[in-house]
Amino acid sequence: MKLGVLALQGDFREHIYALDDLGVQTREVRLVDELLGLDGLIIPGGESTTMAKLMKNYGFDTALNEFYENGGAIWGTCAGAIAVAKEIVDFPQQASLELMDIAVDRNSYGRQVASFEADVDIDILETAFHAIFIRAPRIMRVGEGVEVLARYNKDPIMARQGRLMATVFHPELEDDRRIHEYFINEVVNSK
Questions:
Q1: Is there a catalytic annotation at residue 147?
Q2: Can 172 be counted among the known catalytic residues?
Q3: Is 78 a catalytic residue?
Q4: pTM > 0.90
Q5: Collapsing DSSP states into helix, strand and coil, what is residue 152?
Q6: How many independent structural domains does the chain possess?
Q7: Active site residue: 15, 87, 147, 172, which one?
Q8: What is the domain-level CATH number for residue 88?
Q9: Whose CA is closest to 30, among 62, 55, 53, 8?
Q10: What's the pLDDT tens digit per position in 29-84?
Q11: Are residues 102 and 85 in contact, defined by beta-carbon separation less than 8 angstroms?
Q12: Exactly one of 170, 174, 180, 186 is catalytic; which is it?
């Protein structure tokens, strides 16, 4: 298995470290041809508007749709969740990949100073996960076929739709690698 982390902007290094901890062969992806041979890709947190512009400038807006259509798994964290969302409710002119049937509201949990941490119950884990929310988007709607795996105050914070996964918090900033393991074992291996 070989995974990639989109390395245009944001906290891609932290995902690389997490995957290294799990012994997974990993590649930083900066150019479209670096998607070749990958089984899955993580789109990290960062600044969603900047990331959307860079993805378009480098051709990832179409290449990632092709990657998914050809069997690749994709996980978006925070800004990455915005990137994979079918709808961005507060800024509809921002481009997204429109892959996952969710609607998100960018920075809905507040500005940088309102960032917070919370222990959350995640359906796929036996014990709580310490989640870090940094200018997090809020999932406002989930479509048919989208499974909500975790909630915070009744709002979805982790969801899956086949080979797509989204988290509005940052699992890569914790030493707990269970969510990365889930992506590898259940989402990527579901092909």
A1: no
A2: yes
A3: yes
A4: yes
A5: strand
A6: 1
A7: 172
A8: 3.40.50.880
A9: 8
A10: 999 999 999 999 999 999 898 999 999 999 999 999 999 999 999 999 999 999 99
A11: yes
A12: 170
